[in-house]
Structure formats: structure tokens, C-alpha cells
Amino acid sequence: MSPFLVFAGEPEQNVVKGKITDSKTGEPLIGATVTLVGIAKTYTSISVLDGSYHFKNILTGAYTEKVHLIGYDDYETTVELRADTTNNSIVNNIQLEVHHRELSSVTVSARVNRESEEYALKTEKLADNVMNVVSAKAIELSPDITVGNVLQRVSGVSTTRSGSGDGQYAIIRGMDKRYSYTSVNGIILPSPDDKNRSVPMDMFPADMIERLEVVKALTPNMDADAIGGATNLVMKNAPNQLTVNGNLAAGYNNIFSSRPFSAFSRSGINWLSPSEINGVNYQAKVSDFTISQLHFHNVAAPINIVGGLSIGNRVFNKKLGYMFAASYSRQYRGSNSLFYEPNGQPSPDPTPNTPVFLYIHNREYSTLQSRLGVHAKFDYAISPDHKINLYALFLQLDDNENRHEEIIGVGNSTGEVDYHDRVTFQRKNLYNVSLNGNDKIIKNLYADWTLSYAIATSKTPDWVDLVYFKDSVNSSQLYASPLTHTWDHSHDRDKSAYLNFTYTPAKNIEFKAGGLYRAKDRDNYRNDYTLSTAVSGGTRQPYTNIDNVIYSFPSGYYTGPDSSNGLNYNGTETVTSGYLQGKITLAEKWQVLAGVREEITHQYYFSQLPVTSAGKTGTIDYADILPGLHIKYKVRENQNLRLSYFAGISRPAIYELVPGFKEGDDYPETGNPNLKHTTSDNIDLRYENFFNSTDHLFAGIFYKNIANPIEKGFILNGSYPYYEPLNPGSNATNYGFELAFSKFIGKWGITGNYSYTHSSITTSKAVEERDSSHQIIRTSENQTRPLQGQADHIANLSLLYKDAKAGFELQLTWVYTGKRISVVSAFYGMDYWERATSQVDFSGEKTISRHWTVFAKVTNLLNNHLYQDILKPNDIKGNPFETDDNRILVQRDVFNQSFLVGFRFKM
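Below the sequence we write its predicted C-alpha cells.
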């Protein structure tokens, strides 16, 4: 290939520069080694983010210019900087050919890197529907170690945070976590969460995935239980040659620079309650309960550990591929929280619905998280027409948490101070095994099938609540309060079968048909025991330490399982679905995909509520016809215009249907057997411009009309409030705009996204006020508000620097989430709003050899706090803890910075 040589006027002194691109696609090639070999000296450079390379201050003379990049043919030419010309500048733009060689009729070519950012962009470009894709390479360079934190950087996605401050559940386009599902390699997973069907995304180590797909417009061949969107994790696949990757890092959470980590031992915790061990008629004894977990010890400056290893290859003449990957982390996390506990019923004075606070909770969380992930994948080519895949996944997340709080009474409770230690050990597990096959039936007719078994479990053995207090009479003396022990565990099992047929009668026509059958079994167990501290005559016991308290069961107290507790239940759910889908490409410009899906749902539950209780058992059946239409117009070779419509649904979780009470963190909760499933019509319009393999611009709008939305709201039983999932009684709308972009110039790059979302729902709320005769009355008034969890504005911005020659990569990121409703109140204007938040993170790495890289990650660099407020004028009198005139603080959480330093090796 002849070089394209341009001799410029006088831009620089003795310069050789240019761009390196793919000869077929024109996309810039990053990381190509460019060498100038001269008689006196040799120079070396590396192509940067936009494919450019640059030499300057080169000695005059003739040079052999060589270019090498794995997967491409080597390139060589001659350039000359002449001594009789000043300010030489040679521009040599080079196009590389993909390397290939032919052996008889078999062609061996370079295998595409499916973990690269270029492959992620190409996946978005060629997709039939609207989606965003995050590559393994982008995740590796990010400050994140869990998928939950990665998700917050995707366009139009925010996350709810766990108690340790990590992203846990995705809110896609302002739709609560209930309106999306999580799949692994296309298979929907059950949830270890005992309250909903959402999978906690902080269970997934980020270094185990090949790419993360956020699908925002469903096609008819996809599961329809998603209105906001779907998150699909594509796990690491077998490489084309032996590959060994590993990482190891250590870090620290800065919150423990000001206080120690409060730890406890779980060695004495019983996994089963006394009634599970001895039978339902067993009368428990005080000796059946341990208090070993209440002996706390401080850990100063605890060190976090994160590590991972993956091994993969293709053997037996490349027919058998395998990939083993494992990841483990042990992290000490903490937060300091301030919470104002309100009375369930507001006051009518001085204005209607004035909040009344009873206690101030100063909380210190010490949480030890141990996260383990293991997966194995095998694929075998029986013949060119028949392939089979076997996949296995195991995830485990252990949370050891001590929440110590000082509870100070205010208002009518002034003078009372309680101390509360809540000690919990929770283990969440997720298992999945799937067998998949791809077969050619006859010419142009293909079938793929999948059999999957998955189980998710959550176990919280012997949750202990220790309370001691001092009253206003004798403030120097502490007294013991009753001690509670609780066992809670749930199982969610899915057995699924998928079958799809694909027929391509012509190059531009494709028909698909198929369906799935999924059988879900869920059960939940809860049992709690309360041990009294009163001695004979009802005298209170002084509290000095836990070992000096004498506990007993009150006379006549039944210590077996609570047969009336609706949280002891079993439930099943079956989903049977089928679809027809066609796709046609017209004039190489238009692609039209259309089809329809039917999903038939059967739900059943049986609870241990008394036989006279309404909703003791329940059976729910419904069927949905769900059409879809996706049109893609190729404006130019690298530009798409998409228009999509799909109908989606959202099913209630079985837990939400069972009307049994369960104590929550701040309010009791119950289910609703009359809950209806949600349906929605969804429209998308998006423009895409893929300038090259790194630069892009996406802009789009969306609209959703939602029938029977489900939200968790307050129900009032007199002055006693509790949470319940509700259909508010009116439809909701949700619409917005999304923008995503990336641009790289030389060694610098900038990427970002912005989304605006507006939702609206109208519900009836209670108003506590006085009538004309100053008597307290309760009226109702309609309130229009956003959907729970929806933020108007979400933005991400990342500044990147990459010097391939020096081996440096740096990234500074900013995540912004606008204010949003975190808790829906039963009273008008009393919803809890989470304030807008900004978080700045940093990550960087330095390649020190061909196989070794060191890296650093810093999260929450500016120590962002989380606040929750009631957004109304602050006319509370005599409250010294809140001074803002336009909002009333109810909660503040402080997490501080986290640091991580480590190394990677790749072979």
C-alpha cells in the first residue's frame, strides 16, 4: 500500500505524524506501535484514542516506518526528512488490513475482542432495538468494583443505594426497580430479596462480565416483564487462546479514620430457630438463645481486600471452549446517619399536616461485606450445524452489620434516651445452571433452546435487637429492655425452558417464533421471640453490660412460631408465553421488525394467617397480548434513526400479595391481595451517530403510558401507619429525553450523558387540619407528583487521559442525580424527597510491563452526603436541629471516601 504523503508549510519542527485506521471500516485503531528506524537513531510511538501518532524533533535522514498491531498485517514504508529543507512535516495516514490466511477451505482470522469499547459500540449500532452497552474494558478502567455501581453511569439510569452507600437496584428512565428485570446471558434470574423480584446488583462482581446491556425497548422475543427496561449481564466467554487474567487490591474506607469499626462474632449464631430445630410445638427456653454476637470488639483501620482470577482457552482443534472465573472481596463499609423519627400522624398546628417528631436517631453503621462470585462456561461445536453450551453461576453476599444508635426523645418524649444495637448477619445466594443448544434443522431454518434452573436464597439467622435506656427521672442509670431474636429466610426457585425457531427465506427477511415456560416456587419463613427483662414484681433491671442482664419469658408467653404471621407462606407462579416476530430489510436502508407476544400468568399463595382472615390464600390469573414494532432507518453508513413501540407489563411479587405484617426499619409493612399487575405502552425515538470506533452521539425521546402502576404507600389504621403496595387508582405517564456522547482528541477524551425524565401520577392524600370550630378533622385532597424514585435530571461526565506509549490511563468521573421521592406518604405534601446528589470518583492505571498493570480507584472523592427532606415550609417551633426555611430534614447519611490500590496481570 502506498502512503499518502503531504509536505506542510511550517507547522512544526521535523515532524512525522498521521492517523492509523482500519482499511475497510475507516475506524481509528488504538494502540498500534509505530517505529521509525533510521541509521543513527530509532523512534517509537503508539497510536492514541483517535488513532493518531506523532513524532517531533526527528533527526534529518531516511527512515523505515513500521506499524504493528495484533490482528492486522504489518505495515512498512519509507519516509525522509531532508537536510536542505527546514521545518519538515510529513503527514502519513495509514490504513491497516485485517490479518488473515487461508488453509485449504478454512479461513483463520483475528478474533474480535468482545470486551472492548469498540465492540460495545458496534453492538449498539447493529441492535434491532434501543439499548446501551458498557464494555468490560470500560468497567475495568472505571472506579467501580460491582455492577450496581457501574449501572449509575449508564444513560437514563440511576440507582438506589444500600446502607453502605453502594448502588443496589437500577431505576431505568425514572421507573422503580420493580419495573425492570435482570438476566444473565438472556436468562431471567430469581431474586434473593424477600420483598420483591428485583435482583440486588451489588451481588455481581464487575470483573466477571464481558459486557453490560441495558435494553430500553423490548422486542417480542424478549420476556415482557419490564416497563422501564431490562439489564442483561453477558458473562465472560472462552477466548481463542489460553488466557489467564487476575487482579488483587487492598483499600480503606475513610470513615474509620474518625471512629473504629464495631465488629462481632457470628460463630455462635444458630442458623435455625428453636421451633425449626425442635418442632412447632416446642416451648423455647432462654438457654436456646445465644448472646455471643452482642460482645462487640473494635477494629482500627480495617483493610479491604478485592481479588479475581479467570482462565480460558479453546482446545480440541478449537471445538471446545472453556472459561472459569472467580472473584472475591472483603470490604469494611460504614456510614453515620441522622434520622428524625416522625409521629405517624402529623399535627394540624400551626398549619395543616405539620410534621411531629418523636425521636432523633444518631446511627453508626459498621458493615462487613464478603462477596464471592464463581462462574464456568463451556461451549462445544458438535459439528458446524450443532453447538451446545453449558453455563454455571454461583454468587454469595454476606452482610455482617452492627447498627448502633443513640435515640434522643424530643417533644413529648424529651428526657428519654435509648441505646439500640441491631445485630444482623444476612447471607444471599444465587445459583444458576443452564444448558443451551443451537441447531440447524434444514436449510435456512435454525433452532435454539435453553433449559435453566436457578435458585435464590436469603437467610437472616438470629437477628438480635438489644435496647437499653435511661429515663428523665434518673438520667445517670441505664435500664435493660426486652431482647428480641428473629429468624427470617426465603427461597425463590425458577425452572425455565426456552425454544426459538428462526427462518431466513432470503438474505433480507427473517422470521422468528417461539416461547418459554417458567415455573417459580417461593417460600418465606419468619419467627421471632421476645425475652423479658423484668424481675419479680415488675422491677426494672439496671443495665451495665449484656452478661449481667437476666432474661426470661413472661408467664403464659407462647414461644413457638407465630401461626398467624402471614409472612410464613408458600407461593407459586407460572408464566407461559409465545411470540411471532418478523424482520425485513428494504433497500439496505430500512429495517422493520414487528411481532406480537402473549404471556399467561398464574399466581398462587398459601399463608399461615388464621382461616378467618381475608386473603389467607389467593389465586390470580391474567393474560396479556403484547405487540411490538421497531423501525431502524440507516441515514448514512454510521447513522441510525430508530422508532420503537412495545407493550410491557410488571407483575406483583408474591410477597406483595400476602397480607401479613412485618416490621420494617421505621414502619411496619403488609401485603395487598387485591393488587393488580401493571401494563404500559412505550414509545421511543432515537438518533445515533457512530462517527468512528470511539466517538458517538445519541439523542432520543421516550414516552410511557402506565396503567395500574404499583407504589408502596402509607396506610393509616387510626393513628397507626404502615406500608402497603398499592394501585393508586389512576394511570401514570412518564416521558423524557436522553443524550449520550463521547469524543476523543489525541490522548484526551470526554464521555457523558444527560437525561431528563418527567412522570406524573395523581393520588388521594389525607389532610390533618382544624375546622371552623377548631376541632381536628381529617379530609382528603388529590396530589399530583412524580413516580417514586424518579429524578428529573441525571447526568454523567468523564474526563479521560490515555497515553499508550507511557502506559498511563486516568479517569475522573462525575455522577449527578436530581431530587426524587424516596418515601410516599399517606398525607398531603409529606413525601420524603432525596436531595440532588453529586459524586466525584477517580481511577487510574499504569502499565509497568507487557503482563503487569498497577491501578488505583477512589470513590466519593468529595465526601458527598445523602439527605432526605419533607419539602414544605419549616414552621416547626422549638426544633433546634433543622434551620432550613424551605424544607424539613428527616435523614442524613455520611459515607466518606473509599480507596483501593492494586495490580492486574494478563497472560
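The helical segments are 117-126, 136-141, 147-151, 274-278, 654-657.
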